Amino acid sequence: MTTTTAPFALARYQDGASARLGLVAGDRIRPLDDEDLGAAG
């Protein structure tokens, strides 16, 4: 993983058999869903 100086970053990661998009802050990744991305519906 690349170290950044920004307070957060986006990451694509493997969750079981699925690829997910997440928000990286510190050493944690918060999974993002369609609603978080403004793509609901």
Structural features, described:
The chain is an all-beta fold and 41 residues long. The protein has one domain (1-36). The chain is 0% helix and 49% strand. It has strands spanning 9-15, 18-25, 28-32. It has a 3-stranded antiparallel β-sheet with strand order 1-2-3, with no helix packed on it. A hairpin with a 2-residue loop joins strand 2 (18-25) and strand 3 (28-32). It is flat and about 35 Å long.
What is the fold's blueprint, element by element?
Layout: E1 9-15, E2 18-25, E3 28-32
Antiparallel strand pairs: 1-2, 2-3
State the domain count.
1
Main sheet attributes: strand count, strand direction, barrel closure: 3 strands, antiparallel
Total count of strands: 3
Give the topology string: H per helix, E per strand.
EEE
Number of helices: 0
Shape: flat
Quote the distance from N terminus to C terminus: 32 Å
How big a fraction of the residues is strand?
Answer: over 45%
Enumerate the spans where pLDDT stays under 50 for 5 or more consecutive residues: none
Brief overview:
This protein has 41 residues and is mainly beta. The protein has no helices and 3 strands.
What features would you highlight for this structure?
mainly beta; 0% helix
